[in-house]
Structures are given as C-alpha cells and as structure tokens.
Amino acid sequence: MSHQRTLQRIVTCEGTGLHTGRPVTMALRPAPSNSGVVFKRIDLPLAPTIEAIPAHIVDVNHATTIGKDGVKVRTIEHLMAAFAGTGLDNVLIELDGSEVPAMDGSAAPFVELIRAAGLKRQMVARTYLKIKERVVIETERSSIQIVPSERLQVIYTMRFDHPALGDQSVAFDITRERFAEEIASCRTYGFLKDIKELHRRNLGLGGSFDNAIVIGDGGVLNGDLRFRDELVRHKVLDLLGDLYLLGRPVVGTIIAHGAGHHLHTRLVREIQHHLDLEHPASVRSGVIERWARPLLQPERSLEVAPS
C-alpha cells in the first residue's frame, strides 16, 4: 500500500514575491494525515488558514491565487508543483506575506527545501484519482484534455509569437525522478515588451533577471536556457502545480495546447465537479475512480524515513 507523507522537520526560506515585489519568509511544517496542503497567513490577526483546494481558487491572472474569507495567497503553483513532484501529501505553509517567494522562478529551490526536511511516512493510505473517461476544455485558440491511462503523462504544446522561440512541444511520463531532473528547474518567463503593462496592473513588480527568463526582440536577455524547450517545460510545471489542488495524484494522460492557468484550473474544477457528484460512500463514478493502492513505480529520489 502507498502511504501518505509529511515532512520530518520544519524548514524555512526567504525571498521576494514575483508580483507583489515584497519580501516574504516561508516555513514548511509537518502536518497530520489527511490534512492536505494548507496555507497560513501569520502576518494577519488570528493567522487565518486557506486550504489548497479547487473551491478556493480566486484568481488565475498570470499566477494561481487561492483565497478564503477575503484572505489570499498568491502564486502558489511552483510550490504546489514541488509538493506534487516529491510526493508530499500533508504540509502546513506559514507565510508572513500574501505571496509565495519566487526564489529563482522555478520549483527547484522548493524541491531542495523538501529534501532538506526529509519525508516521513504516515500510516494512512494515499489515494489516487484515476481518470476513466475523457474530459475536455476548449477555447477558440487553446485546449486541454485528460484521457484514461495507467500513469500520469503530459503532452504539452505552445506556439510562441516570437522568431527565436517558435513552436515547443514536450511529452513526459511524470515520475518523481523525471520531475526533479527535467521539470523542476524550469523557470517562469516574461517578454520585455509586456513589462510596463504588467507593472501598470501591479503585476511582476518583483520580477528580475534572477527569477525569470526575460525575452527581448532578439531572444533571451539573461543567459542561457536550462533546456532548449525550457518555456514549455515550465508550462508543464505550472500544470502539475495547478492539478495538485485536487489534493491527490491524478492518473491519466493530459494533452494541452496553448493552455495556461485559466485552462489548467478549469480542468481541475471539472474533475472536482465529477468527484462531487459521487455518493459519499462510493469509490467510483462514471468518469473518475479513486484508488487506494500505488499505480506508479516507487521512486528513490527522496529519502523516506520509516514511520
């Protein structure tokens, strides 16, 4: 049986919010079984908490923001991707600000933070959401769908209106090892021509050459890409983070074209809608089946302490 996992010990980091531009300190704390991912705003009176669930998505404009009772936490997707990619089920995130620190614009620093904390097995079964029927979300120029398969796979295509970038496509079988080696380090990106407009809208105020790929008319302005197709790989990272708002690993093949947070979270809400239609005592519906046994091969990318 596959068990839920939490952290062995508390770890902290400091950084700057990508959009707020404000300094923030974050602590990751061990959490009880079945508690999931919970954010806590310790800078506010009574230190309110926000569970990272689909019902709490409040904004997906250039980042994923969750909120409850008027309290928000912004830009959670890179951290959520690190939780998904390392197999961390239950964690309490304490923040002394409204936004997760950007770090280097990828999920890699968060993966290293989780590795420093170590993972602890909990004596409760980990469940998976296995897709049984195709679910499709489409707009005029973009689409995302998930179809049945025996493991989590992602096929992602982006068409960039830039001569140095063009079309980029990737296909991954998502495992912990592959996430750590080929996805986690891929950074967020922005175009130089858009910066003034973003700032006018109070977005990207903390963006810099240190935490984003910046693209000008001639191409990337701040050094070499970590992968030739780093930009579309980062879209996969964002997708995995948004998908983890479901609280459990998903088993299926996701095919995305020109998507982003808007379509990612629409897919998440649609999957959650099918789950909500289930009878509470049931483990399956016509579209999704809940599994309480491992569907993926175990990975050894993180050391797991015995319970």
Automatic annotation (TrEMBL):
Q: Does the keyword Iron apply?
A: no
State the protein's name.
UDP-3-O-acyl-N-acetylglucosamine deacetylase
This protein's pathway: Glycolipid biosynthesis; lipid IV(A) biosynthesis; lipid IV(A) from (3R)-3-hydroxytetradecanoyl-[acyl-carrier-protein] and UDP-N-acetyl-alpha-D-glucosamine: step 2/6
- What cofactor does this one take? Zn(2+)
Cited function: Catalyzes the hydrolysis of UDP-3-O-myristoyl-N-acetylglucosamine to form UDP-3-O-myristoylglucosamine and acetate, the committed step in lipid A biosynthesis.
Q: Does the keyword Lipid biosynthesis apply?
A: yes
Q: Which gene holds the coding sequence for this protein?
A: lpxC
Write down the chemical reaction(s) this protein catalyses.
a UDP-3-O-[(3R)-3-hydroxyacyl]-N-acetyl-alpha-D-glucosamine + H2O = a UDP-3-O-[(3R)-3-hydroxyacyl]-alpha-D-glucosamine + acetate
Q: For this UniProt record, give its keywords in alphabetical order, as a comma-separated list.
A: Hydrolase, Lipid A biosynthesis, Lipid biosynthesis, Lipid metabolism, Metal-binding, Zinc
**Native species:** Candidatus Methylomirabilis lanthanidiphila
> Could you say which EC number(s) this protein's record lists?
3.5.1.108
Annotated residues for binding of Zn(2+): H78, H234, D238
**Matching Gene3D superfamilies:** lpxc deacetylase, domain 1, lpxc deacetylase, domain 2
Q: Name one GO cellular component term.
A: membrane
